[in-house]
Amino acid sequence: xxxxxxxxxxxxxxxxxxxxxxxxxxxxxxxxxxxxxxxxxxxxxxxxxxxxxxxxxxxxxxxxxxxxxxxxxxxxxxxxxxxxxxxxxxxxxxxxxxxxxxxxxxxxxxxxxxxxxxxxxxxxxxxxxxxxxxxxxxxxxxxxxxxxxxxxxxxxxxxxxxxxxxxxxxxxxxxxxxxxxxxxxxxxxxxxxxxxxxxxxxxxxxxxxxxxxxxxxxxxxxxxxxxxxxxxxxxxxxxxxxxxxxxxxxxxxxxxxxxxxxxxxxxxxxxxxxxxxxxxxxxxxxxxxxxxxxxxxxxxxxxxxxxxxxxxxxxxxxxxxxxxxxxxxxxxxxxxxxxxxxxxxxxxxxxxxxxxxxxxxxxxxxxxxxxxxxxxxxxxxxxxxxxxxxxxxxxxxxxxxxxxxxxxxxxxxxxxxxxxxxxxxxxxxxxxxxxxxxxxxxxxxxxxxxxxxxxxxxxxxxxxxxxxxxxxxxxxxxxxxxxxxxxxxxxxxxxxxxxxxxxxxxxxxxxxxxxxxxxxxxxxxxxxxxxxxxxxxxxxxxxxxxxxxxxxxxxxxxxxxxxxxxxxxxxxxxxxx
Length: 577
Ligand code: ARG
Prior knowledge:
Elements: H1 3-17, E1 28-29, E2 38-40, H2 43-50, H3 54-63, E3 69-75, E4 79-84, H4 86-96, E5 112-116, H5 133-145, E6 149-153, H6 161-173, H7 196-212, H8 214-229, H9 232-255, H10 273-282, E7 286-289, E8 292-295, E9 309-312, H11 320-335, E10 339-345, H12 349-362, E11 370-376, E12 379-380, H13 397-408, H14 418-438, E13 446-447, H15 450-453, H16 461-478, H17 491-501, H18 503-512, H19 517-536, H20 545-568
Parallel strand pairs: 5-6, 5-10, 10-11, 12-13
Antiparallel strand pairs: 1-2, 2-4, 3-4, 7-8, 8-9
Helix pairs in contact: 2-3, 6-7, 6-8, 7-8, 8-9, 10-11, 11-12, 13-14, 16-19, 16-20, 17-19, 18-19, 19-20
The structure holds arginine.
Residues 116, 119, 121, 155, 157, 324, 342, 344 line the site of arginine.
């Protein structure tokens, strides 16, 4: 249903035919709804270029408009206000009742887009910031809605120093393990010597020791080098650590409805590390500096410092820059994508700028492939500082989830018990976390205000889910699944309808600007308008059969639209709560 786009095209044609040259005439949402639903504001522009009175031009335009509009009027110097005829609104929205696609303007060629988000580091617990994987997941879903071909990759951080540190620590506490015996010739044990819970303690301890003990840090780096190189014992231990830690992180992603098409890690790009280094070196782009193989990516006109890409240490170990370049080489070969988009903490923007430059300078990625870094802000506590636990420690993502769950569970109706209660509480927890995370503009830091986010009022996940649940129970009671809009001379109905005419543009902007907040805002507005409608009108008691059918059709339309929008945010609804 591109009522607005179609109308804009119609206006552009009509106005050009009047002799006013214009590429595109926009319909703007009215700032004064008492005069009309939309405005056409181009008369003022033409007045300047054609040396005419804008009101005269506006009158000329008005007299050539067709019957899709009613109540056409001119305000001020030449603002044209228009209102869609009920008939055209009914026609176009009836098409959308059972077909959300009607709201999606798919007018371009399908793209294959690799989406890189998640990025958990193996051997470390997910922290609060990892909640922001929601953004990438949502954009993946939005890309699907638009008919593109998104491929999501979690890109596990499994090839860097954290695992080296953990191995260093294990070497001290369990020195007799065969992994550390260079002369060991037998098979390594099938079972990991450490559990995930133990990893949860080992990593923080090792990370502290590294800061205080230089020798310890060097030894840890040495282990990193060894598993990268494939020294059998250390590699086998590395594998145990990966296999122990990964399912735990994966479970959190599953809980948050994040679906990864690829579960690759940095380690999967390892076979491409040497080839990519060779690729760059063959082009004469690398050099040695202080024992490091580097590639310069600075430009003459850079107005900030642009450090070189660091590719290889003298001990042969590769670095974060290398794995990202290698991963890109792998992705280009495997998928030949039109775009690679990264959803990563804003603080990594420099790393990605360097990496992208390296890709362009070397031709690893051709210019027509869209490389984008979509950075996100930090999640803070009420004090505006990075979220901490009560005793000042780093808050894990699981800890945050638990906090929200405990706050929400008591709000669920008493009659919902047992497993069902748990299921509902889980879904509402996810809804709360997701909505809170996807509402603010991506780049800004936000405060995780748990009281506000778990409220039934205002811009929250539970408010949206609650509204959808209400609609569903109305439909269960009254709907045959066939009702259509019949007459819409009711201001509560009309408000919802007019809001829905804005949805195609909203979705398109959300996708173009890669901004989920537009969708989250729309969800709130739609839910509020529906609740207002529900308060003011009594569906059951309505005597006029056309109006009654319209009310039910409107509920179907609002419900289907709302649940589809929630699905883009990866929020599921519940039957009761
Ligand atoms: N594991 C990284 C980190 O936590 C994030 C990975 C982001 N993606 C990438 N391709 N570098 O810092």
